[in-house]
Amino acid sequence: MIYLDWEDIKVALKDLSGILQVLAIVMLVPVIATLIYTPSADPFGILEDASAFIIPSIILYLMHKAIRAYVKTKQDTRTKHAMLTVVLVWMIIALVGALPFMIRGVLDPVDSFFESMSGWATTGMTMIEHPEVIDRDIIFYRSWTHEIGGVGIIALGLIVLIQSGNVAMDYYSSEVGGQKIKPGIKSTVLETWKIYLLYTLAGIVLLYIFGMTPFDAVNHAFAAIATGGFSTHTDSIGYYDSVFIEVVIMFLMLAGAISFLVHYKIFNGDVKAFFRNVEAKYMLILVVIVAFICFWSLIGTDTVGVDTLSPSDVLRKSVFQTVSAISCTGFGTSNVGDWPELPQTLIMILMYIGGFYGSTAGGIKLLRFAVIIKAVIFTVKRMLLPRHAIVSLRMGGKTVSQTELLYVLGLSMVYLVVAIVGAILIMALGYTGYESISTSLSAMGNVGIVYIQGSRWYDMHDFGKVVIALLMWIGRLEIFPILMLLAPLYNKSGKPKKED
Fold it and tell me: Do residues 417 and 479 lie in contact, with contact meaning Cβ atoms separated by under 8 Å?
């Protein structure tokens, strides 16, 4: 059991300081949108609007300076310190990141925290009912939180850390799966950002070519590659009713949901790396099966927002929503909350599974889902074959150890238990069990698809909003870093345990 003393906390705070410094700069980027989109010619009016981003930036910078001035330690960073830093930074940026919405009077404090957590955790759930009427710089800020949160604000902050190598990679492991691309954390992060930014730029250009305004193209490219889900329109991607835009968005969603290691191999000429990947095979199978069942369930029915007498329209919406769910993005061309229960249930299962390990997607990840399926097959084989038969559980040509299997099963089970607890808390507010579990899984998986309709969603009690925001936080960190903080500070003997 991990023991944290004050010295451990100081190590985590020391590393947190460098990340907060980077975030202080990141928070100033939306000021550019303020300068472009503020209609006032009065410099003081522009400064007043820009203060929504300047004030949080100053707060983050002062926190950085205070920690650096008062927290001194020579202890090296270890895994437990990395996990603690990850937990702290996501909560801090969600709290400070709520200020722009509050300062500009867009949302109340609880809704602002909800919106901020949803943005930084790349969930895409929103308490802004009609984004079209909100100032453009605030809408840009929402999308900007997706862009930065998607690849991992920890990964961005790592560039300023002194440490390099395996220990620093613990941070990257918490954010994007820990699959090394190049030796050294700085090289790994930079390679990740190159790939990420290339997809972002390509998405902006293509979306603009196919009919989006420059503003909409930037915002939707940010949200799609980050598998976020914030849109500039109430009707999300359905607003455009364009096959070409939907194809580009699906490409970006899938790109964000695929491991950066696979992207790196593809960019270096190994195109077959995708098709060799175990997760890719499972993703393709799930998309085909779920999209087909959704198509079959919708065709000929009386479903709002879908021309169920048009096979092409049903197919478009079935495929798009399936990709949106498994990539944990949450964009919509149709309101899934109006669909029949069978496709709704399948979409909910995809929200639980999620995308690739080492991607910006949420959920338990396809790799863990594949291990669970293999474990079931392995168990059946062991039952059917003679006792002396040698059967091993293998994944991608490698044997899965009992320790690894227990970790996968444990995380998947704890993930589900937390989602159920969250659903019970939401259900206590008067929502149905189906609405509650779907919302809980969507928040935990950082998906953003919501089955609760209209005012019943936007007028939810503040308690429910806080619960959902915390589920986003827990899901983004994949549970165990938070469980580490909740673990007893002493082992069974009552003495501190100094090892990791």
Answer: no
